[in-house]
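User: Batch of two.

Assistant: Item 1 of 2:
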Amino acid sequence: MLHAASASSFCLTYPRNLHYPCYLTKPLVKTRLSVRCSLPDTNKGAQAEYTPWLVIGLGNPGNKYHGTRHNVGFEMIDSLSQAEGILMNTIQSKALIGIGSIGEVPVLLAKPQTYMNFSGESVGPLAAYYKIPLRHILLVHDEMSLPNGVLRLQPKGGHGYHNGLKNVMGHLDGSRSFPRLSIGIGNPPGSMDMKAFLLQKFSSVERNQIDASLEQGVEAVRTLVLHGFNSHVNRFNLGQKYKYHKV
């Protein structure tokens, strides 16, 4: 069952993995969501505060587009939802969203239900409503400049002629200073039309590569959410770069 989120009914009931008492502050007005956790008595009631992440996958809604190259952003959200036990059952700001946590950090997963080129109509309002800082907005999208199944995690960047990404930037005041996880889908073969290529489904070999990349992507997102852009992310990107390197 889908639910429509509103200011009066929306709340997070996470994190679920902590071994000490926690509560989530729920604002009465638009503000930044946060989790405050009371630490053990040895810390004299000290509190740690975690800023939530908004993780958005780009794609097109509807069965017609399921499994196509242009929808791998949606697939990553589905993989995260399954891996973290986050139920995608709420509609808000033209998006299907799920609310949960990765470790101690609260996350909002989102799949815009606009078409790809209007994804910013969901991302902008969600980020503004919950006061999510740009550095905690992770956009997941397909990328033709990368070989099929190769991932790249970056703290910022341009749109690279990706219309969905371009539209999101436009709804974030033109900023490019937000993280993105790019999923390689390769280039159209020969003179194949680009739009036809994007709406094409993967071959069996390509599908296996994408499935493996989704598993790796889940671990990359976990690392980013829990530790930020650190040496682990750098090693992840380097490993991806040479994943299918031909000697």
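Item 2 of 2:
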Amino acid sequence: MAGAAASTLTVARKPGGLYQNNPATREAPWVRRTLLTLGLGFFLLFLVLPLLTVFIEALRKGWAVYLAALLEPDAVSAIQLTLLAAAISLPLNLVFGVSAAWAIAKHDFRGKQLLITLIDLPFSVSPVVAGLVFVLLFGAQGWFGPWLQGHDLKIIFAVPGIVLATVFVTFPFIARELIPLMQAQGRDEEEAATVLGASGWQTFWRVTLPNIKWGLLYGVILCNARAMGEFGAVSVVSGHIRGYTNTLPLHVEILYNEYQFAAAFAVASLLALLALLTLVIKQIVEWKAHSQVKEAP
């Protein structure tokens, strides 16, 4: 009897370790169909339909109008500023994220929990509030405003303010992606490398970095997408100066408010394409990471 039961369980076991006939995972067919229908319905209504609308409206007046909207000087300036803000903020977030994750996952120190809380701060603070804080600090009437004016330095309503706001709203992404990954991996390999005489840099480059490369790349992708799409904090510190401090999201808002709908949707389509490209790259990274895990001995 016991042997038959064991045999039954063995046959019922899936490759992943679950049981096909586990009563706790069975439901009526109509429940599965209902859940699937609801999921697909939400997907089509809130994701596919808005994306299709953006591209349909962008191309409604033809390719000539679409390309003219993208090649217009203010649009080119907005694209360049968006790329510049992302190009500056991404390396800064990369250094901070790796350093913070290394410190939190590999070392014990007083104030670790406080550091984790501070890393999560941009997730809980509205980007608009963050922008107002920068205005309070670096604006003409802010705490450091007189000193900045005395040294002919301008942060608010200029490119440095946009970069600061972008860095603030994006710096948790890489750190938050790496911290649980590095904590799950533990410290054994780093400690073994240290015992064998490896320096700190050698341990990082040859042991830690290969173990976290996919998670790091995943965090970089999300950070870059967030940097290019940021609106709230950048809107507060930019001043909306056309051709100078407008990023792509701000340029879309201005065009829409001026009833230039075709141009607004044309520029918005670039952000939509960025979102789609981010999803494709994210999927490729996840697939490669999964393949590497399956191939590991």
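Residues 43 and 50 are 10 Å apart (CA to CA).
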